[in-house]
Specification:
4-stranded antiparallel beta sheet; 23% strand; PH-domain like; alpha+beta; 2 domains; 3-stranded antiparallel beta sheet; single chain
């Protein structure tokens, strides 16, 4: 098998690809905000507006109000990539592995490194055990290339089910 194409991934592509991770980070910040707000209110109410409970409770409640701004910043930082990531890249998928090359970088993964492949609407995302990911955009693939790649990945037993349940 040999699939080769050149493609420039857009900032929107990366926002879509990284949105799940960004939302997990936002949920963690939101959980912290809710926890701080609850603790702050309980301390103030429990101390009846006096003493240490109030001294700790009010700042905790105020801090919880600042966390939505932190959540927004975390989201934007997670889905925003450097401009160099959007430059044109040549992708090559062969029986030996995956390769992605630009004027600045070249990455090669042998198939032995690939543990799971997650098809998403915008890309095939290749994962190592606990390591980085390698994405191959779907948009430039022809129907024949996509079918060939899916069959190859399924044959290797690394293809995870699509969000809509397809495999």
């Amino acid at each position: 098998m040999r699939i080769e194409f050149t493609h420039a991934r857009s900032p929107e592509y990366f926002r879509s690809l990284q949105r799940p991770e960004a939302m997990r980070a936002v949920r963690r910040v939101a959980g912290t905000a809710l926890g701080l707000a609850a603790v702050g209110v309980l301390l103030v109410v429990g101390s009846q507006g006096e003493g240490v409970g109030t001294l700790v409770g009010i700042p905790a409640a105020v801090a919880s109000l600042m966390l939505p701004f932190t959540a927004r910043r975390v989201y934007v930082e997670t889905v925003t990539v450097p401009a160099s990531w959007t430059e044109s890249r040549t992708f090559m998928i062969t029986d030996d592995g995956l390769e992605s090359t630009s004027s600045l970088t070249s990455v090669m993964w042998a198939w032995a490194a690939v543990r799971r492949v997650e098809p998403r609407p915008e890309a095939y995302v290749f994962w190592q055990d606990g390591g980085p990911m390698f994405d191959v955009p779907r948009q430039p693939l022809t129907a024949e290339q996509e079918q060939s790649l899916r069959a190859f990945l399924d044959e290797r037993g690394v293809l995870a089910g699509d969000a809509d349940g397809r495999k």
